[in-house]
Design goal:
4 copies of one chain form a homotetramer.
Chain A: H1 4-27, H2 39-45, H3 47-72, H4 79-92, H5 96-105, H6 111-137, H7 149-159, H8 162-175, H9 177-205
Helix pairs in contact in A: 1-3, 1-4, 1-5, 3-5, 3-9, 4-6, 5-6, 6-7, 6-8, 6-9, 8-9
Chain lengths: 209, 209, 209, 209
């Protein structure tokens, strides 16, 4: 079983989940302003929606980039791998929901519940992404015969930390919701920069292949 | 006519239908709680939405995995096959609607109508998936010249039961809605496990080709 | 410029427009029943939504199948062709909106306006599909060197009627909305059958290529 | 890293963002008419929604056509390029939101805020599209070895103006909202014509390659 259709399906889910995030911004636009407020006022007070949109879009974008990297090392798929991937995509497609919760509640009473829900979702995402990778990589089960061991080890080392960092951020959110939310944003930003700056180096080093 | 664009279109519908399920969770979130309830309370009482999301996402995921398996045996498409596939996808894209009905009504008066509507939709899905397969497989009409007869027979034997099991679960739902709903969930879970554990074996046995 | 990405984009729009039709069913579900009606009652009185869903899904499905047939004859794309295709897809993506209008208003005062809006949309769809085809086919501009002249002539002959039939159905809808709606349904059904039965013949005859 | 999956993901986001625009038309349909107005009346007074739909769909369509042109010159991607593309797609996927704001407010008090929000979004879109292109083109970093220098220079020359024109139109919108909105429409129309008429010439001239 080659991986072409798996990538089409996964890219479809990534693209749709990311694009549906705009409904997060759109859905309850204006509810932050008192009745009769000007549109300009509503646009300004909705800033948490924009931030939540950016953080979740970047998070899904990073997941997509990393999935790209992972699939480059994979030669073929079996049905177990497909089902684990379906579970993983199920959690990715769930991200727009807690994103909206955070956007709407970060300034109010529900901030704790919203950021914890967000953190639990991202923890599960990271855990299932680990399951996808380690199922494929264990004993080289689904890897390309010519997979670069250095890249394989690099992915394994990076991935294994993900869920624990999200667990830590979720615990922080349970105590200080706003701090947790900032943490989620900074962690996404870290990945963007890591991917761009260090990733450039890394792909440079591996350019001979 | 090769099957490339058919798979792109089908994967698109599968991915979108699955991802739109999140609107099931999002759409009426909070309606389970009394006015003024905390967000944490709303998150807890919405559990049927999450279960419905998981069951329907896994169901669409299994359909996608099986469509993958089916298309691997198919060499080319004719226009009749494309139209049958359109009908099949039409029912798959319908799944988010009864999913929402079940999520919202399973604890109330509408449980029977909602679970029966869900069951009818899945019965039709299974029936049309059979039509897709048997139209292609009858007399080897659209199969690859080198399609493995054992796999072809295996698909035919597995598929033929699907609609009847959904008919049975729908009848159970008509009598005991909650029992029917549990049945839909268990059947999805059975397929996930069957695909993963037995499927692994099966792809193992057929790995030489 | 090859046509691969064009087909991916078009298939994406077809798949999303078709799948979004479910929001037609979902959006105003229950508004047909008096307050306090049972879910079963709401499910029954919503039948126009299901019919509208089926007719529009099949219509988009047929457009997809025909686009498939058209693109099989096309070798490459230029920028004008891409822009005409964008215009064509713009109208296809519009179809869910008049579909909802018909579903909600066919039993009430707005039946005439709704069915006329539906007819105008489908007339424009057919007209722009003609523009896509004839731009590519005129003088063989974008056709494959080995395009079958019989198939090319066949497409041209079939396409040229489409807009006029939709104009006629729209005029009927302006006088007798329900009759017009039935006409849209029958015309979709005619295409499904024509595609399946005659299409099978046709692809049979052309199988040597 | 080849560019296949990048294009699938980008085409997915373009297709979904464009298709979601229909929710712009659908979402608040009828709110322009007084209570009890006929459907025909509502259809007529909603004209700004249709115009906004057309302008934004064409804008996304042009971006897609241009992305097509750009990617034709690009040989491979690195992780920085993927992340810049994710940022670019994030803004494209945002377009449906200010589109709805313009459609709903162009006739009222919020016209200024809505058209400025629209202009800022399109300015950012153009700026990030520039970032995508110049990151790839600088020193030929990601270009195909056989990229046509004339086409590369042509893209660079055309792209560099985009953000400034959107800045200018946004400033106009801040003073005269309706004039700004007309400007956005005319600019989209200009691109459609430029792409179609001049583009035809250009692809003609470059047909030998």
């Amino acid at each position: 079983m080659n991986t072409g259709r798996l990538e089409t399906f996964a890219d479809g889910v990534f693209a749709i989940a990311a694009t549906l995030l705009i409904l997060t911004v759109d859905g309850h636009f204006g509810s932050c302003a008192p009745a009769g407020a000007t549109l300009a006022h509503q646009l300004v007070c909705s800033w948490p929606s924009y931030v939540a949109y950016v953080v979740s879009f970047l998070t899904i974008g990073i997941i997509w980039v990393n999935h790209h990297t992972v699939m480059n090392q994979i030669d073929h798929a079996d049905r177990t791998f497909l089902m684990i991937t379906v579970g993983f995509l199920m959690i990715v497609a769930f991200i727009p929901f807690p994103t909206r919760l955070v956007a709407e509640n970060i300034k109010g009473d529900g901030a704790r519940a919203a950021t914890v829900a967000y953190g639990v979702t991202l923890t599960l995402t990271a855990a299932l992404f680990n399951a996808v990778w380690f199922y494929a990589a264990r004993g080289g089960r689904l890897l390309r015969p010519d997979a670069d061991p250095k890249i394989v080890r690099g992915i394994s080392k990076t991935f294994v930390f993900g869920p624990w960092i999200y667990v830590a951020l979720t615990l922080i959110a349970a105590v200080e919701p706003v701090l947790g939310a900032i943490g989620f944003g900074l962690f996404a930003l870290f990945w963007v920069i890591e991917s761009s700056v260090f990733g450039r180096d890394r792909s440079h080093r591996s350019s001979p292949r």
